[in-house]
Amino acid sequence: MPVLRTPVLLLASALLLTACGGGSTPDTAKAALTIDNCGHEVTLKSAPKRVVSLNQGTTEILLSLGLADRVVGTATWTDPVMKGLEKANASVPRLADDMPSFEKVLDAEPDFVTASFVSTLGKGGVATREQFEKLGVPTYVSPSDCGAGKDNDSGGDGSRATPLTLDDVYGEIRDLARAFGVDKRGEKLVAELKERVRKATDGLDASDVSLMYWFANSQSPYLAGCCGAPGAITRAVGAKNAFSDTHDEWPQINWETVADRDPDVLVIGDLTRKQQTAESAKAKIRFLETNPATRNLTAVKKKRYVLLSGQAMNPSIRTVEGIEQVAAGLRDFGLVK
Predict the structure, then answer these.
(1) N- to C-terminal Cα separation, the chain
(2) Distance separating alpha carbons of residues 87 and 318, to the nearest angstrom
(3) What phi and psi, each to the nearest 5 degrees, are found at residue 328?
(4) Fold match, 6-145+154-195 / 203-332
(5) DSSP 160-221
(6) Which superfamily does CATH assign the domain made up of 203-332 to?
(7) Cα-based distances in Å from 243 to 54, 143, 167, 201, 270
């Protein structure tokens, strides 16, 4: 295993970073910086030059901030990269489609490690934050997963006492922009996302419409509870979530219960990974239209399907994409006032 460059990189001057060229030149030279990340102090002595992003969500934020030349590894993907980022992503090494080993990450010689989920950067994941930090590598986890209101120890994908908001996603963008000294880019990106939400939901009234979000698995489907990214999408379009009575992030609910609630629209995850049954939208729709418990659902008979990437159904920059697509689908189905 190569020797980590971390001590050298963390002590490099911010002035040297401004001379790196390319798209990731900082807006201003940065001295030491400390970020409060879910009660965990992340101290950076200078802007990172070799970041490993352990989830697609954090990777897409870094790429959107023009930091592709700083990303030396990415992993754990559910979908093709977000449109517009294909060229930037092509230059980033894919350490693994799923979770890489701790050793594989260390081989990339990171000076900073980011993740979207505690399950990736924590017990049972690639490694704990403490394992990286003992080696002098600071870490960051998306506040949408480790922040106030999220209980990751409650089983499954965790639960939320309070609903996720887009401000949690915007906060992650701002944190990462600060870490790399590109604060102005972060503010510009947040402003663009807010404007996209405004345009997508302007004049939308879907208060009589119920939605059900299906992420994966046909035998014991993972359906969205009240308060994760699907909850943020549902509130933005003014609709109702068929399973808003559960605070679990992705509870597994039987199809008989789904039939009882008979949602107006099915929001379906179109995943490219191969971990669960019925990952792709095509496989999900085939199941829905042939299974006795689901083929008579109103949404199935009327083919009211909205297809979303897995990333849009997770707390991420693409949750905004989810709002746009659900809003467009509701308008297409003639379900909005």
Answers:
(1) 61
(2) 18
(3) -65, -40
(4) yes
(5) ESS---HHHHHHHHHHHHHHTT-HHHHHHHHHHHHHHHHHHHTT---TT-EEEEEEE-SSS-
(6) Nitrogenase molybdenum iron protein domain (3.40.50.1980)
(7) 30, 24, 23, 22, 20
Q: How far apart are CA 263 and CA 14, in angstroms?
A: 54
Contact call for residues 65 and 186 (beta carbons, < 8 A): yes
Q: How many CA atoms lie within 13 A of 258 on its CB side?
A: 31
Tell me phi and psi for residue 214, to 5 degrees: -115, 115
**Region 6-145+154-195: CATH code:** 3.40.50.1980
| Structure token pair of residue 309 | 């990437």
Which residue, chain included where needed, has tokens 């939400």?
A: 197
Strands 222-223 vs 210-216: parallel, antiparallel or unpaired: antiparallel
Q: pTM of the predicted model, to two decimals? A: 0.89
Q: Is there a contact between 14 and 49 (Cβ–Cβ < 8 Å)?
A: no
Task: Provide the sign of the torsion angle of the four alpha carbons 268, 270, 276, 282, taken in this order.
Answer: positive
Looking at the DSSP bridge assignments, the partners of residue 113 are: 52, 139
**What are the beta bridge partners of residue 34?**
43
Segment 246-302, tens digit of pLDDT: 999 999 999 999 999 999 999 999 998 888 889 999 999 999 999 999 999 999 999
Alpha carbons 317 and 20: distance in angstroms, whole number: 27
